[in-house]
């Protein structure tokens, strides 16, 4: 079933008409006397409880991307975290910044007897989290809490029964910090805010909120902690002290670099830091999983004003298959390969404790063959010519209204890259580049009230135009992806020859 059809059925199940009342409908359900009948109907509709359809609906229709930049954990990453943190005799799992429970559900899929402690700040997603726990008959403590400051607002207990969990709201919020066997987390990235004095005691003097979340997870765990963070934490200068601190303690077990475009509202590359408080060495396993992904197409809402938000786009994202997840987990025991490296603390100290694998792998070019540069440039120009056949000139206000301001920005950025590449080609001393890469001229903004491809009424935008623009943008996305693939091939083909001196500049 398509998400649209499922959403329609789910809205009907909770007796709501639209996304605005969805959360309230779920809240009324989980605290009602008739909740079990709703759970029955939900399972009848969606019997596979290993899939979190509630998260997909909430993220698609209700997530606050504009202000809070909410983006919930992709299933593939949740599954990877679940398998990475498997340990003997685990009974309690702590989910920090639990959201709707994506990490919790995938961990529960590995062992239905696990109990959970879920902490989350956003009150709007709490009903979704409670529903997900109850319909799966999970025992859990749910606390609405600011993780970094320690402020607790309210708490609930879900208790496993014969079929579905029951909910009890605690008269006094749960303030005791339950210690779990394993901690899992996908916290907000790169926050800048105050943290509690308790957390400060667990960090070096120079710290960031990214590692403050990590410290909190370690404080709450007897053994494993797995945290999804932006990939920049592996090498950024301002987080060097944190990397060194946790390596010196011997708790950092692995750093796994992940592909870009796994999350829906941000293309930022991410990573998983895996900690083990029972580890006996300071060595850290580095794994490069950036090229181990599979492409999938997902529907996504636009951002911006109502007209843009209400449009749906199909975009390509990266994900992991079960086979790829297994392969990544197996690399945990592979000390040296093209995509893994067991890093000693002595090696790390010579590279500012960088946890990206690149600086520690030898550069090997033998046996590598690449296409002629001019052939690749010819294909790039073929794409640019195809894209330039249609030129759009659009008023700046209309451009924003239609979501074309992003396309215009991409065009400008691409031309900056083209200019830089063409200048580099002219510097080659021993290789002839036959033609420059063509400048992109497919779109431009205007201060005048114009829209060419032609909109004849200069004051009113035709209702058909959003549909046309959607098709136009999809065409551009396809061409842009092809161009990016070829530019990456061009970069990879030039690099070895630049490094070994065959190309001189």
Explain what this protein looks like in three dimensions.
With 505 residues, the chain is α/β, with parallel strands linked by helices. The chain folds into two domains: 73-360, Vaccinia Virus protein VP39 (Rossmann fold, 3-Layer(aba) Sandwich); 373-499, no CATH class. It is 38% helix and 19% strand. The strands form three sheets. Strands 5-4-3-2-1-6-7-9-8-10-14-13 form a twelve-stranded mixed β-sheet, sandwiched between helices. Helix 5 crosses helix 6 (102-110), helix 5 packs parallel to helix 12 (322-330) and helix 14 packs antiparallel against helix 17. It is globular. The model is unreliable at 65-70 and 302-309 (pLDDT under 50).
* Widest β-sheet, arrangement of strands: 5-4-3-2-1-6-7-9-8-10-14-13
Helix content: 25-40%
Mean pLDDT level = 87
The beta-strand count equals 17
Please name the defining characteristics of this protein.
three-stranded mixed sheet, Rossmann fold, alpha/beta, twelve-stranded mixed sheet
């Amino acid at each position: 079933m398509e998400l649209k059809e499922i959403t329609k059925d789910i809205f009907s199940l909770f007796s709501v008409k639209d996304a605005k009342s969805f959360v309230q409908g779920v809240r009324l359900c989980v605290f009602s006397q008739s909740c079990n009948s709703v759970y029955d109907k939900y399972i009848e509709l969606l019997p596979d409880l290993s899939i979190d359809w509630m998260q997909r609906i909430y993220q698609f229709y209700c997530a606050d991307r504009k202000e809070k930049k909410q983006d919930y954990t992709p299933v593939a990453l949740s599954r990877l975290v679940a398998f990475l943190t498997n340990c003997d005799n685990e009974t309690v799992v702590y989910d920090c910044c639990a959201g709707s429970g994506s990490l919790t559900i995938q961990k529960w899929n590995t062992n239905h007897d696990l109990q959970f402690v879920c902490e989350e700040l956003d009150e709007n997603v709490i009903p979704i989290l409670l529903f997900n726990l109850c319909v799966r008959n999970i025992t859990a403590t749910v606390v609405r809490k600011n993780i970094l400051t320690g402020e607790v607002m309210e708490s609930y207990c879900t208790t496993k029964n014969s079929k579905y969990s029951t909910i009890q709201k605690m008269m006094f919020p749960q303030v005791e910090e339950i210690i779990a066997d394993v901690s899992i987390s996908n916290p907000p990235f790169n926050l800048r805010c105050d943290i509690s004095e308790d957390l400060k005691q667990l960090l070096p003097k120079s710290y960031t909120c990214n590692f403050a979340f990590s410290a909190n997870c370690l404080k709450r765990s007897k053994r494993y902690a797995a945290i999804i963070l932006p990939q920049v934490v592996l090498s950024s200068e301002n987080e060097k002290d944190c990397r060194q601190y946790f390596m010196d303690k011997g708790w950092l077990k692995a750093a796994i670099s992940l592909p870009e475009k796994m999350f829906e509202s941000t293309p930022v590359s991410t990573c998983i830091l895996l900690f083990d408080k029972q580890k006996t060495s300071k060595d850290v396993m580095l794994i490069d999983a950036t090229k181990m992904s599979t492409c999938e197409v997902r529907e996504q809402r636009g951002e911006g004003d109502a007209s843009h938000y209400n449009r749906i786009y199909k975009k390509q994202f990266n994900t992991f298959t079960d086979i790829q997840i297994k392969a990544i987990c197996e690399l945990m025991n592979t000390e040296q390969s093209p995509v893994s490296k067991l890093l000693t603390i002595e090696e790390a100290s010579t590279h500012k404790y960088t946890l990206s694998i690149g600086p520690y792998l030898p550069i090997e070019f033998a046996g590598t063959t690449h296409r002629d540069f001019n052939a690749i440039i010819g294909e790039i120009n073929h794409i640019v010519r195809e894209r330039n056949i249609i030129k759009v000139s659009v008023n700046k206000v209309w451009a924003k209204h239609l979501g074309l301001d992003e396309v215009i920005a991409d065009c400008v950025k691409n031309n900056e890259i083209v200019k830089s590449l063409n200048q580099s080609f002219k510097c080659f001393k021993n290789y002839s580049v036959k033609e420059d890469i063509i400048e992109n001229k497919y779109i431009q903004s205007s201060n005048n009230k114009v829209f060419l491809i032609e909109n004849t009424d200069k004051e009113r935008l035709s209702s058909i135009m959003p549909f046309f623009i959607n098709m136009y943008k999809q065409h551009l996305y396809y061409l842009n992806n092809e161009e990016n693939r070829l530019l990456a091939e061009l970069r990879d083909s030039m690099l070895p020859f630049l490094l070994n001196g065959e190309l001189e500049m």
